[in-house]
Amino acid sequence: MSNDAATAEAAGTDEATPVPEPIPHGLGASLPPADARAKTEGTFPYAADLWAEGLLWAAVLRSPHPHARIVSIDTTHAREMPGVRAVVTHEDVPGAPLHGRGGRADRPVFASEAVRHHGEPIAAVAADHPDTARMAAAAVIVEYEVLDPVTDPEQAFEAEPLHPDGNLIRHIPLRHGDPDATGEVVVEGLYRIGRQDPAPIGAEAGLAVPRPDGGVELYLASTDPHADRDTAASCYGLSPDQVKIVVTGVPGATADREDQGFQLPLGLLALKTGCPVKLTATREESFLGHVHRHPTLLRYRHHADAEGRVVKVEAQILLDAGAYADTSSDALAAAVAFACGPYVVPNAFIEGWAVRTNNPPSGHVRGEGAMQVCAAYEAQMDKVAKKLGLDPAEVRLRNVLATGDVLPTGQTVTCPAPVAELLQAVRDFPLPALPKDTPEDEWLLPGGPEGAGEPAAVRRGVGYGIGMVHMLGAEGADEVSTATVKVQDGVATVLCAAVETGQGFTTLARQIVQDTLGVDEVQVAPVDTDQPPAGAGCRGRHTWVSGGAVERAAKMVRTQLLQPLAHQFGMSTELLQIADGKITSYDGVLSTTVAEALEGKELWATAQCRPHPTEPLDEAGQGDAFVGMAFCAIRAVVDVDIEIGSVRVVELAVAQDVGRVLNPAQLTARIEAGVTQGVGIALTENLRTPRGLIRHPDLTGYALPTALDAPDIRIVKLVEERDVVAPFGAKAVSAAPVVASPAAVASAVRAATGRPVNRLPIRPQAAVVTA
C-alpha cells in the first residue's frame, strides 16, 4: 500500500488528497519561464499582434538588383493612389542618413544614388490597408542602371569601390612566436562556410505611434532598445528623449532580432502622417532584410611534430560582410583570435580580412567568427591525426588549452578552461548501438523512412569538435547594465532593460531576487528606453552583466531589510541569513519571517554591473581583448550512405564548461537548441545567392532542421568550475555548442567516408565514395 493510500484509509476517505508539487525556488532550481504557458498556448502577444486606433499599414519597396545605380525615383503614381497617406524616400530622412550596428554608420535608411544588395530599401508607403500599401510600393517607379555585382569576396580587393568607405572593412594581421618554426609534418586545407540565416520563427514586425511633443514611440521586438533608439533619433533628426522604444513580443533570437531597415521607415511614416503605422514583414522580406552569418573562406597550414603536437599554425581568413559593415569587425576579431582553437600553439601567423561585396549583409549570428574557424581548425586536427596514424581524440588531448596558457593574441587564459576534461568525457562516453540490418529498422537509414539508401552502403563515423567562444563584448567595449529592485507589500519587482530573447534572463532575475530576499513573488517589468540601458542580448552578457546588476541591487535591498533587525539585536547584518522565507541569526536569538519584516515597508535600490575592461587588438593582433571564454566538446556519431551521400546524425555527446548551473532545465534546453542549430549549419542550411540574388527566400527553399532531423543529444558532463570574476560564476552556454557541433559532424563524416569534407553545409557529393 502506498503512503498516500494509507493516509487516505486512516482518514476514512476513498482516495488520497493529492500532495501539491513544490514550487521551484531560487538559483539552482528549474524555475519555468514566466511566458512559457502563453507561448505554448498561442496567447503570447507577438509584435505582429500590435494594434492602435487609426492604424495605417506600411510597405517597403526593395531593390530587385544586387548592384545598380539609381537614375531616378518617381513616387507620383504611388502618392495618387486612393488610400495612400504618405510615401517616403531618402529625401524624407531629416537627420543622419546613415546607420549601422557595431559602431559603424555606413548603411543608408533608403538607397539614394546606388543599391548595393538585393532587397535594399528604396521607399516606404503608409496606407489605410496593407494591400493598398503593397500596391503603392510596387507603383513607385525606379529607373536603374544595372551594374555587374561583386559577389566573390576575393575579387573585392581589386574591384571598384562599392561604398564610399571602400571595400576593405578590416584587416587583422596576427603575429605570435617564431615565423621560421617548422614541424615534422605539415597539413594544409581550404575550407568554405556557407551563409546561414537566423530564420526567426515570429514575423518581424513593429508599430510606430507619433507623440504630441513631436516625438515618436516605437513598439518593437528589439534586442538592444537603447542602441536602436539612438539610431532612430539620429535618423529622424530628434533628440533621444523624443524617441521611446517599447520592447514587445520577442519570440526568441539567435541573432539581431530586428533589422533596423524595418524599424526606421516606421517612425518616418508615423511622423509624416501623424498616425500610428504598422509593418509586418513577409518571410521573403525577412530573408531580404536582416543580416546573415558571414560566409567565410579559410586557408590553413598546420605544422606538427612526430607526436602530433602543433608547432605552428598559418591561416588566411576572409569574411564576406556583404554590402555593409554591421558587426563584421567584431566577427573578424573573434575569428582571428580563435583561429587556432582551444589548443596551445606556440607560433601562429594569421591574416584576417572582412570585405564588402554585393551579397546580402552579414552580421551578428550566434558564435560569429568562432564557428567558421572551428570547422577549419578541427578539420586540420583530423588531418594531423590521419597523417601520423594517431587517434583523432588523442591528438587533440596532446594540444588542449588549460587555465594559465596563452592565446595567440598574447592574452593569458585566466578563466577556468577544462578542455581536456570535456574531451575525455565525450571520448569515454559509450557509443550508441549499431543499427540492425533488418527491414523493420529501415528508418535508421540516412535516407529516413522510404529512403533510397541501402543498408550495405551505410558507413558509421565518429568525430570530434571542440569549440570556444568569448563572452560579452570585446576589444574595449564598455559592458555595463543597470537594474532596480523594489519590494512592496511582499512583492518584488525588477526593472532592467535587459531583453528576454529566450536566453532566460527574466527567469534568472526572479531566481536571484528569490535567493537574496526570500520573496516568493517576483515580477520583471516590461522593457522600454525610459529605463537605464542594459545593452544587447548576446554572448551571455545579460546573465553576467544584467544578472550581476540585479544581484547587487537585491543585496542592497537585503541590507535595508536587515539593518533595523540587526540594530535591534546589536549585531551586524552579516550575522543574519535569509532562507526558506525566514530571517534567522547565527545564534538563533532572532527568528522571524521575511513577510513580517517587510510589512508596511517599501524598499528599493539601483545598482550597476561593469566587468573588467578589455583592449583592442593591436597592429600585430595582440591584446587582452576578451573578458572571458567558454568551451564545449562534442563527439558526433553519424551514418553515411556512401553511394548517395545522405547523412544521418545518430548522436551528439556534449560536455560543456558552464561555470555554474543556475537553472538546470533551462540550461539543458539552451544546449540542445544550440546543438540542433549547429546540425543545420553542418547539413542543410545554406542561403544561396547566385550573382547576389537571394534564391528561394522562404522556408521551403531554406532547409531548417526539424524535430525529425534532430539527433539524440546526450549531455554527458557539465563542468561547474566557477569563473571567479563572473557574477554567480556562470558562463554563457548557447553559443559554444553552435560552434562545436558543425565541426564534430563534419569530422564524423570524414571518418566514415575518408573524404576531406571541406565545405559546410556538407553536400551529398562530398560524402559519396566511389570505387
From TrEMBL:
<protein>
    <submittedName>
        <fullName>Molybdopterin-dependent oxidoreductase</fullName>
    </submittedName>
</protein>
<dbReference type="InterPro" id="IPR037165">
    <property type="entry name" value="AldOxase/xan_DH_Mopterin-bd_sf"/>
</dbReference>
<dbReference type="InterPro" id="IPR016208">
    <property type="entry name" value="Ald_Oxase/xanthine_DH-like"/>
</dbReference>
<dbReference type="Pfam" id="PF02738">
    <property type="entry name" value="MoCoBD_1"/>
</dbReference>
<dbReference type="InterPro" id="IPR036856">
    <property type="entry name" value="Ald_Oxase/Xan_DH_a/b_sf"/>
</dbReference>
<feature type="region of interest" description="Disordered">
    <location>
        <begin position="1"/>
        <end position="36"/>
    </location>
</feature>
<dbReference type="InterPro" id="IPR000674">
    <property type="entry name" value="Ald_Oxase/Xan_DH_a/b"/>
</dbReference>
<dbReference type="Pfam" id="PF01315">
    <property type="entry name" value="Ald_Xan_dh_C"/>
</dbReference>
<dbReference type="InterPro" id="IPR046867">
    <property type="entry name" value="AldOxase/xan_DH_MoCoBD2"/>
</dbReference>
<dbReference type="InterPro" id="IPR008274">
    <property type="entry name" value="AldOxase/xan_DH_MoCoBD1"/>
</dbReference>
<feature type="domain" description="Aldehyde oxidase/xanthine dehydrogenase a/b hammerhead">
    <location>
        <begin position="41"/>
        <end position="148"/>
    </location>
</feature>
<dbReference type="Pfam" id="PF20256">
    <property type="entry name" value="MoCoBD_2"/>
</dbReference>
<feature type="compositionally biased region" description="Low complexity">
    <location>
        <begin position="1"/>
        <end position="17"/>
    </location>
</feature>
